[in-house]
Known about the structure:
The chain is an alpha/beta fold. It has two domains: 1-269 and 455-564, 3-Layer(aba) Sandwich (Rossmann fold), CATH 3.40.50.2000; 279-453, Rossmann fold (3-Layer(aba) Sandwich). It has 24 helices and 15 strands. The strands form three sheets. It has a seven-stranded parallel beta sheet, with helices on both faces. The two termini are 28 Å apart.
Amino acid sequence: MRMRSPSQQDDAQIVTQIRETDLMQLLSPNEEDPILKSFAEYDAYVRRAEKLYAEGRFAAASVVSAIAAGVAAHRHCGVFASPRIERVLTSIGTSLQDKDVPQRERAAPTAIKSVLHVATQLSPVGGLTRMISRWVNADKSRVNSLVLTQNRGSIPHHTVEAISESGGKIYKLNRSPGGKLEWALELRRLAKNFDAVVLHFHCEDIIPIVAFADPKTLPPIILLNHADHIFWLGPSISRVVVSLREAAADIAINRRGVEARRSVIMPTIVDPTVRERTREEAKKAIGIDVDCVLILSVARGVKYRTINGVTFAARHAEVLAKNPKAKLLVVGVGNPVDWEPVKKAYPGQIETIPEIELPRAYFEAADIYVDSYPFVSSTSMMEAAGYGLPLLTIFDAPREARIFAINHVGLDGTALVASSQAEYEEKLTKLIRDESYRRAVEKGAHDAVESQHTPPGWLAYLERVYAKALELPPPEPRVFTERKDLETPHLGEPDRRHHSIVSSNFSTADITKGFIGMLPLRERYAFWKELMAEGKFDGEPRFKSLIPLAVPEWLKRRVCDGRE
């Protein structure tokens, strides 16, 4: 692999010009504003990446870019996209030279017969992992392969099986010696053997941006907007951006800089529902009284965040008090300590369990499905509709914050939506007490999900996506990377709400630690010294804290993940 120096790049002067915005002026109205404080941390890493690029230290610049994106994704800083980060990354990408695969313009394919799906890593539980498997299983007319850029741990069996039955292969980049740039080059080589590439990658994964920096030399790049509520990378290289709901498409165009002609909407794919037990049989199987009205909610624990001291359990307390035969069962939240007072006040009426991979029995047993709060869980809503459950969600925010609402294909207009806590309790009470009303409400959602979210209805949407990818010309990255209007932090809706609801407890140091093993040794040591000086290793001895950082990421994966 050879690289041209920055002085040899046509656009080097654009990338190496470090922005001199005085953030103190931005912070002066309110020095404690959490969005602006997060933006300042993010901006510092972007500047550091730009500086490293200007010095010709490309590997370090790419990893620091990933850290910057990680800060923006985990601790919302008022922006949803970064032309500056993608300018650094695409400039690095166009500098990568591969004598075996020369860069030349690629003739547009006339049909898409083989697809390479690109993901960062796959978790055993989660909608994205399931969507990849379901996508591949449904698309039987094509060969689908999968490449994982930074996978840690095992790959779910259902994904391995889906790719195998499609005739494709699974590739793991981070088991090969090297770092992000070597893995990006390998991804580019792989992609050139396919008719289309679909990106399902994580928000801070810079490898595809570097790999696909020159879209005109590659097959069509299609980005699945699965993390539609947070910052992500990719507008500069994507021929088509696929959103799963209207609010996501709106943010993609207006806050991420995606060209309107490149934005399309497609439903989330779910499995066709096949009941194995009646509702009564399922209740008995999971130890629930068959006479109770079971209210179910299924999502990852982070989606049930306590807001202003009010837990998800407390939001149902009044309804449970007035309906002693009703029971709330929440799958995925574990056993939150702050839910205990309400659980004790209503013994037997609130039950919580950890995340499980296959919650089928709970869907089969439920009478009513309620959405997670304050953040929606659309995939679970669709699965519940498939089992014939009436759906209830709450959206009590302004329209500008509708990224926190259910407005997904098939659910918009068929799920019951309450605009206040009082209306939520009223609608839920009616569902509990009126079985005929439950039956009437469930039909619309069930029919919509069955017709649009499962094959063959979903496949019709997929064909339109692939047709759009063949029809449009490759994007020109400069159209995005030269924009100046996307990185001024917004302080209103939905950003203010976003920061309080979605931002994680990850510190900048935590995010940095996750990437240190991918840095060149020189920068790895420099970052370690900074974190040690800031006391970020919890009192660990200096030698002990150095051990995991001394081992490169590819070697860790070979050792920790075994031979799989």
